[in-house]
Specification:
By secondary structure, the protein is of the alpha+beta class. It is 12% helix and 30% strand. The longest helix has 9 residues.
Length: 147
């Protein structure tokens, strides 16, 4: 599979200048061999190799390195890669995510992580509007550590 990302998009991700990394990283819908599927992209600057493991089938799939700085991608087997709803239940656990990313660094140390782009924002559009206006008077209830 060839990546759908342009060189300029990859460069802006690596440089940290991309306007909307969530539109590129994490689970993204795509077409592959005539069917709808999902591609997962991650920026893992310390990774030498990376794999994705889907919870549904437990199969460990290698992620392909797109850029030496650590942009990786992999096709998923299922159409849905992440299901988590934090809008009503802020105590949701990591186990509700449908995939995890495993990576090795230059010292061959292995780390398993959750893709931060697979988890939806806990801020609503109204929260973002109020933040932009400077009028969100209970922002402390939405950000930071919570009981």
């Amino acid at each position: 599979m060839h990546t759908e990302l342009s060189l300029s998009t990859i460069k802006s991700l690596v440089d940290g200048t991309h306007e909307d990394p969530a539109a590129v990283l994490g689970p993204q819908p795509t077409q592959y061999q005539g069917r709808s599927t999902t591609v997962v992209r991650s920026f893992l600057p310390d990774a030498k190799h990376a794999w994705i493991t889907e919870k549904a089938d437990g199969v460990r799939r290698p992620m392909r390195r797109l850029h030496p700085a650590g942009i990786f991608e992999a096709l998923c087997s299922g159409e849905k890669t992440a299901k988590i709803d934090l809008s009503n239940d802020r105590t949701s656990t990591r186990d509700e995510l449908n995939y995890r990313i495993e990576m090795t660094n230059e010292l061959d140390e292995t780390t398993e992580t959750i893709d931060p782009y697979a988890v939806p924002s806990i801020l609503s559009d109204f929260d973002r509007y109020l933040i932009g206006e400077g009028k969100h008077h209970d922002l402390y209830n939405r950000l930071g550590a919570q009981l």
